[in-house]
Design a protein that fits this description.
The protein is α/β, with parallel strands linked by helices. Helices cover about 20% and strands about 35% of the residues. The longest helix has 9 residues.
């Protein structure tokens, strides 16, 4: 993965980037990650999250719109490890994760609102590959996400 800083990308491409509101915290073993966006909507149901992470990540970032729910975790250590093993660069969750101590030792970027020990259901709700809105910006499938300790930025083209 190419080395970058979101602050430098904002300075170099001010008219090309959108900046997410600072609502998400770092949990993964990688604090800097980037890639093309894949999206899913997953309100208290992580069946589609699992389905995506089972596939070849190709260095992409899975953006999960969990509706900011704190009722249950949409990603745990098993899904984070699966994502790492399958070549995903990172996972961004508008919701909660669990197993945060274990996730911090996995070589994948993970950002989420918070942690909660409760697991999600698996009803198999299907809603993916659509634009999702949270943190003040719209995450479009196929656009590019760059994340580090300073935050998350998006661009409709590769900035690296």
């Amino acid at each position: 993965m190419a080395s970058f800083k979101t602050a430098d990308l904002c300075d170099s491409f001010p008219s090309l980037v959108q900046i997410a509101q600072p609502l998400l915290q770092d949990y993964g073993g990688l604090h800097s990650f980037c890639g093309k966006i894949v999206t899913v909507q997953a309100f208290d149901d992580n069946a589609l999250v699992r389905e995506e992470l089972e596939g070849d990540g190709k260095g992409r970032v899975l953006v999960v719109d969990g509706g900011a729910s704190t009722a249950c975790a949409l990603v745990g250590d098993q899904l984070a490890q699966m994502g790492c093993d399958n070549g995903w660069s990172g996972i961004v969750v508008n919701g909660c994760i669990r197993d945060s101590a274990d996730i911090s030792r996995i070589s994948i970027g993970v950002k989420a609102i918070n942690t909660v020990p409760n697991k999600s259901s698996r009803k198999g709700m299907k809603n993916g590959d659509i634009p999702v809105y949270f943190a003040g910006i719209t995450f479009h499938p196929g656009h590019y996400l760059y994340a580090d300790v300073d935050g998350i930025i998006l661009a409709d083209q590769d900035l690296l």
